[in-house]
Write a structure and sequence with these properties.
Blueprint: E1 10-13, E2 24-30, H1 38-49, E3 53-57, H2 77-87, H3 90-106, E4 110-120, H4 122-136, E5 144-147, E6 166-171, H5 179-189, E7 198-203, H6 220-237
Parallel strand pairs: 2-3, 2-4, 4-5, 5-6, 6-7
Antiparallel strand pairs: 1-3
Helix pairs in contact: 3-4
């Protein structure tokens, strides 16, 4: 796909009916700190099964050397992932996110004005920043889903620009984003509770990255509930025919 500083690799999933039927809504999915992992890919497939065209840019492909993803059994998984994030040019990643949105919207299989953003962990904050930048560029996203966006505390000044329907999910036992910080995020993104287009969900007992199936992070009940909330939210604000598979 075209990127801010030249081509950037990405993975595309299409609903199995998209080649023979009318265009469908699209979702750009932003990876967690572990890269475009099997977990993130599985969520992309889940979204495509719901009937969305899904594009996942490989953000770490800009690093030297490029990195696609880290394996769950990698030595010092968290430390290595944090090192990768530290090498990343955030502003370039935002511009690449905008380019990914534009690339997905330009596909004939996609409804150009119905492209949303989804992000997990690192990607949850990146999706929020891309949503703000897209709004400023007069191409606001149709929806935003942010799972425990780790960069959000540093991005709250952008909240006024993120006016699309949004869903934010967090765990109440997140040691990376303690509840005091989560409540600050809630206050900013909901406009003190005045913005009805923003849904904010807390999951009791869940820690950071609770949707990731790695036993280090996973909270089964929270993961199941948050994914159901995600499906309900998208069905309400970005509806599509439900697909039965991907190509």
């Amino acid at each position: 796909m075209p990127g801010a500083d030249g081509p950037l690799p990405g993975l595309l999933w299409l609903p199995d009916h998209s080649s023979s039927e009318a265009p469908v809504p699209g979702l750009v999915v932003f990876q967690e700190i572990f890269g475009l992992s099997d977990y993130v890919r599985s969520r992309c497939k889940d979204l495509a099964t719901l009937g969305y065209a899904v594009l996942a840019p490989q953000v770490y492909a800009r690093l030297d050397p490029p990195v696609e993803s880290l394996e769950d059994d990698a030595d010092d998984l968290l430390g290595t992932a944090m090192g990768l994030v530290g090498q990343l040019d955030w502003d370039l990643a935002v511009r690449d996110g905008l380019a990914a949105r534009d690339a997905l919207a330009a596909l004939p299989e996609v409804l150009a004005d119905q492209v949303g953003l989804v992000g997990f962990c690192f990607g949850g904050g990146l999706a929020f920043n891309v949503a703000a930048a897209a709004a400023r560029a007069q191409v606001p996203p149709a929806a935003l889903v942010s799972f425990y966006g780790s960069a959000l505390p540093n991005l709250l000044g952008l909240a006024e620009d993120v006016r699309c329907p949004s869903l934010h999910v967090f765990g109440t036992q997140d040691t990376y984003l303690p509840m005091e910080t989560v409540e600050q995020i809630r206050e900013a993104v909901t406009g003190g509770g005045t913005r009805e287009e923003v849904r904010f969900e807390l999951h009791e007992g869940a820690g950071h990255a609770f949707d990731n199936p790695n036993p280090m992070f996973h909270h089964e009940a929270a993961s199941r509930a948050a994914w159901a909330q995600t499906q309900d939210f998208l069905a309400d604000v970005l509806p599509t025919r439900r697909g039965s598979g991907v190509t």
